[in-house]
Design goal:
The protein is α+β, with helices and mostly antiparallel strands. Helix content is 40%, strand content 11%. The protein contains 26 helices and 20 strands. Strands 7, 8, 9, 10, 11, 12, 13, 16 and 17 form a 9-stranded mixed beta sheet that branches. A hairpin with a 7-residue loop joins strand 4 (293-297) and strand 5 (305-311). Belongs to the class I-like SAM-binding methyltransferase superfamily. RsmB/NOP family. It is found in: Nucleus, Nucleolus. Residues 98-115, 584-601 have a biased composition (Acidic residues).
């Protein structure tokens, strides 16, 4: 062991010679040699305080007498002296230096014999540390008491902290006393935050048990108990309402349902669609890569999609975007247009077109030929549709603003119809987390009803005799059976002139042919389902129909259409008509009465104008019969003239019209319910008005016999 240098002290440095500083280094005289005294120690003198037989005060050490402790200390001192003497000899050999000014022997602190001065104790070796332990053992009783108090305080603090934590978690059932009222306990439990780690562990374990229920289940618990517990944990962990969580969980196996809920917590990849009307996918990818965009093709199933992983620039403001080279569009939105497969020079209808992703994709597939009618019931959304159409360079599209239920009446005879129906959005929960809680049972009754009527209207709008088409594609961004298979089955039941055909999509799961005891048509396996956990796309459903014949005349019309409203009016009760006679005051108005002939002319002009708006030639329709005008003479004929008129025929071979005798009052006769004066066409307008008023008075007076 190396000699200890703990007691060495450095002497005071000598005075500084300024002459040595100002001189050059080579001219400076050599420094004087300094002699040091070697430090020697007296072997009979104790080296530290461990040589004392006792410290200040008298203490008992763990039941041992002080005498015994003194003997052990004496043995340690003797062994310590041997070590110290060996260290001193080694120090002499090495020439340990000692200061001339302050020799170590004059240190009063080290050589003091005062018993009140506490000797320093050093633990250089094991013997010294043992001595320290023996000396500290004297006050072990006091220290142990103080440690016990500190331990009790720490235990009390830990218990208080646990109680505070119990207020923030609802896992421990003992946190809520049993003697509390039910309402108070429910309110308190509702305010507690869930322990997500414990919930996740419990969900995973319950799912594993349900996967192998016979081997892993507890005999005392039924499968319904496990399912109920799992649904409660899913609602607490993922934030779903109990109604929606149960509806979605029934669509999958337990393991797949858990994967579906997890997939809805992560957003889908950002996808852009290349506009082939302006550029090619390879050129677009090269341009975006030069701008710092990391991307790759979305998959082998699409030739225009690009999946973006990272971008240094906003994709909605690049020069390529503003030039219409691409559009931001989800990968799942490609699928309905790919299933529709529009051909060039066809007439296509998109019943719910906004914001224009599917419409512009169809226009690109048609190469701007033919015509596309892009309809949307929302006028505000139609403005965004128009903007995308102009930006992407689409020229074969007509934007219209009608209710989709009116289209069989407004226009028909399309080769293909695309219906992306409004839905609950259970397939795009990753985009809109509010779907988890804002969908109720009423929504799943109202939306399927609307979807069924829209699908019937779409089928009626297609021309079954089309040489290249006659197809209808129905799609939703939902995964529930009520909005997909049940709607398709309803259309098959109400329209026997359609059938399901293959969608032509290379991937996707088959639609359900049976679900929860309900049986569907076997052809529903031709439909396709898409899930976020299976294909990393939004949840989607696609079905394709082929119209093989005309719609039967007695078929049920889409509710909300004009034809259906007319049928309801015919089948309902008779229309209530107010038959109260018009008073004389109402007839004597300043307008001078109404003329049926003038009204008929105005009605005919309005009907012709309406037909022109619909693109129908008014002359091609059956002309309405004009009311015959009765010829009335200004003077009352006598009996002989009346008999002659009955016997004599007109030159054209027709009999002259009969004129009934009516009482004359003030030179005015009443014929056919109209007042006619004796004035000719040369009378002024003022005279005609006065004659009309006089005729009305004559009509109101009792008729003469």
């Amino acid at each position: 062991m190396a000699p200890s240098r703990r007691m060495q002290k450095q002497g005071v440095p000598g005075p500084l010679d300024e002459s040595l500083v100002s001189r050059k280094r080579k001219d400076a005289p050599p420094p004087p040699e300094v002699t040091y005294k070697k430090r020697r120690t007296d072997p009979n003198k104790p080296k530290n305080s461990a040589a004392k037989k006792s410290t200040k005060g008298q203490f008992a050490t763990n039941g041992k007498t002080l005498k015994t402790a003194g003997k052990k200390a004496q043995q340690l001192v003797e062994s310590d002296d041997e070590h110290v003497s060996d260290a001193s000899d080694a120090a002499d050999d090495l020439g340990v230096l000692e200061s001339d000014d302050e020799p170590a022997e004059d240190d009063d602190f080290m050589d003091s014999d005062d018993p009140d001065v506490q000797r320093a104790m050093w633990s250089e070796d094991e013997d010294a540390s043992d001595a320290e332990e023996i000396l500290n053992a004297a006050n072990i009783a006091g220290l142990s008491g103080r440690l016990d108090e500190e331990a009790a305080q720490e235990a009390a603090d830990a218990q208080a902290e646990l109680e505070d934590d119990a207020m923030q978690t609802n896992i421990a059932a003992a946190d809520i006393p049993d003697d509390e009222d039910d309402d108070e306990a429910a309110v308190r439990k509702a305010t507690l935050a869930p322990d997500l780690q414990l919930l996740r562990t419990r969900i995973t374990e319950t799912t594993r048990v349900l996967t192998s229920f016979k081997e892993l289940s507890d005999p005392s618990r039924s499968r319904a108990d496990y399912i109920n517990s799992l649904l409660n944990d899913i609602c607490a962990y993922y934030g779903y309402s109990r109604f929606l969580a149960e509806k979605l969980w029934r669509l999958f196996t337990p393991q797949e349902a858990l994967a579906f809920f997890d997939a809805n917590e992560t957003p889908r990849p950002l996808v852009i669609r290349t506009n082939t009307l302006r550029t090619h996918r390879r050129d677009l990818a090269h341009s975006l890569i030069n701008r710092g965009v990391t991307l790759e093709p979305v998959g082998k199933w699409s030739k225009v999609g690009l999946q973006v992983f990272e971008s240094q620039v906003p994709l909605g403001a690049t020069p390529e975007y503003l030039a219409g080279h691409y559009i931001l569009q989800a990968a799942s939105s490609f699928l309905p247009v790919m299933a529709l497969a529009p051909q060039e020079n066809e007439r296509v209808l998109d019943m719910a077109a906004a914001p224009g992703g599917k419409t512009t994709y169809a226009a690109a597939l048609m190469r701007n030929t033919g015509v596309i009618f892009a309809n949307d019931a929302s006028k505000v959304r139609a403005k965004g549709l128009i903007g995308n159409i102009h930006r992407l360079g689409v020229k074969n599209t007509i934007v219209c603003h009608y209710s989709a239920l009116e289209f069989p009446k407004v226009m028909g005879g399309f080769d293909r119809v695309l219906l992306d129906a409004p839905c609950s959005g259970t397939g795009v929960i990753a985009k809109d987390q509010s779907v988890k809680t804002n969908k109720t049972e009423a929504d799943f009754l109202r939306l399927p009803h609307l979807q069924k009527q829209l699908l019937l209207a779409a089928i009626d709008s297609v021309d079954h005799a089309s040489k290249t088409g006659g197809y209808i594609v129905y799609s939703t961004c939902s995964v529930t059976v009520e909005e997909n298979e049940q709607v398709v089955q309803y259309a098959l039941n109400r329209r026997p002139n359609v059938k399901l055909v293959s969608t032509g999509l290379v991937f996707g799961k088959e639609g359900f042919t049976s679900f929860m005891g309900k049986k569907f048509h076997p052809s529903l396996k031709e439909t396709r389902r898409y899930y976020p956990h299976a294909y990393n796309v939004d949840g989607f459903y696609v079905a394709k129909f082929k119209k093989v014949g005309p719609t039967p005349a007695n078929a049920v019309k889409a509710q909300g259409s004009e034809e259906q409203k007319q049928n309801v009016k015919k089948d309902g009760d008779e229309e209530i008509i107010d038959r109260t006679p018009i008073s004389e005051e109402a007839e004597n108005d300043e307008f001078g009465g109404f003329s049926d002939s003038e009204d008929d002319a105005i009605i005919q002009r309005a009907r012709a104008k309406q037909l022109k708006k619909k693109g129908i030639d008014p002359k091609a329709t059956k002309a309405a019969k004009k009311p015959k005008e009765k010829e009335v003479t200004s003077e009352q004929p006598n009996a002989e003239d009346q008999r002659e008129e009955k016997a004599v025929k007109s030159p054209s071979g027709t009999k002259s019209p009969k004129v009934a005798e009516k009482p004359v009052k003030d030179g005015v006769s009443e014929v056919g319910g109209h007042a006619v004066g004796t004035s000719t066409e040369a009378q002024s307008k003022k005279e005609r008005r006065s004659l009309n008023k006089a005729g009305k008075k004559a009509k109101a007076s009792p008729k003469a016999k």
